[in-house]
Amino acid sequence: MITTQELARLAGVSQSTVSRSLQNSSRISLETRIKVQELAAQHGYTIKKRAGISNISGNNGGIAIILGADKMHSPLDLYLEYLSNEVIRQIEKQNYYCVISSYDASDHSFNYIQSIIETADIKGIVIINGNYHSALEDYLSHLNIPHIYTQYFSRPMKKSLNIIDVDHFTGGFIATNHLLALGHQRIGTFTSAGSDFKERTEGYCTALVNNNLECNPDWIIQTGLTYDDGYQNMQSSWNQLCDCTAFFAQTDILGIAIINYLTDHGYKVPQQYSVIGFDGIPEGNYCRPRLTTVIQPVLKIAERSIEHLTYLIKQKSTSAAHLFVQPELYLRNSTSHVK
Length: 339
What we know:
Residues 2-56 form the HTH lacI-type domain. Keywords: DNA-binding, Transcription, Transcription regulation. One of its GO terms (molecular function) is transcription cis-regulatory region binding. The structure is a single chain. This protein is α/β, with parallel strands linked by helices and 339 residues long. It has three domains: 2-41, no CATH class; 60-165 and 297-324, Response regulator (Rossmann fold, 3-Layer(aba) Sandwich), CATH 3.40.50.2300; 166-294, Response regulator (Rossmann fold, 3-Layer(aba) Sandwich), CATH 3.40.50.2300. It is 45% helix and 18% strand. It has helices at 4-11, 15-22, 30-42, 47-52, 69-72, 77-93, 107-119, 134-143, 168-181, 195-210, 227-236, 238-241, 252-264, 298-315; strands at residues 62-68, 97-103, 122-130, 147-152, 163-166, 187-191, 220-222, 246-249, 274-279, 292-295, 322-325, 328-330. The longest helix has 18 residues, at 298-315. The N and C termini lie far apart (69 Å).
């Protein structure tokens, strides 16, 4: 059987990083943990042995986390990492051990998931930030292994699936309503592709219409999700946005980019322009002013997910339910009454 020293050489990391990765230490990046764990499985370092070196006994067996690979290397990976670490903590609190993999619909990732399930005493599966893949779903359903989707992107939601998600429509409504309550009527938003962003935009438009305001398409800016995307789109769209007094950024990274664009160009936030984000990542605390945001409550999402999954495991049930966690307004310093 391969040693941790040999795994370290193959992964290009230190032996201590391998040990921490096998224990799912949050001190190691999610990407590195997945890389090490997949190499370990490929070279016969069994899941059972990994559980033995974990900080917990894992007497109830294993729960696998499968991450949507298309989101792992996107600007959403900060939020994904916070969510995944909290899901791991909740799994370990229930006395299960945890293994992590990614899935990109390729034969390689599908074969790896099969090997985990066949060798690791897997009792349940959490699929995080994933889209629906019929081959994976058919395989899991055939095995009768309870599994849930946490933050699920495919629409419409299939009635046969267990899904725990955030109410993105309500989140967009809350963010926009907060700005409206401060007297802002000309509110721009930065959105992106995907069902979650579509629902946030619908919440934004509904809040405006409920206040007898037009949902101006010129103030809905489609953008990528990196910091540079937000900054550059703010710059290129400024002529159509300059009449706005507030901005709803549909991720915190975009919110930070908007704040920095405004301050770089001599405008004051929130004295002249208010900015609200969405996600609740800690990085929002480190910009100036600190970013007011709508939080996707990671702890509640993780708790609800593992509570529901362990219920399905104990009841030996594959019955389906769609459960929604409500987002929450978190006030910092980047919004104020319109002047």
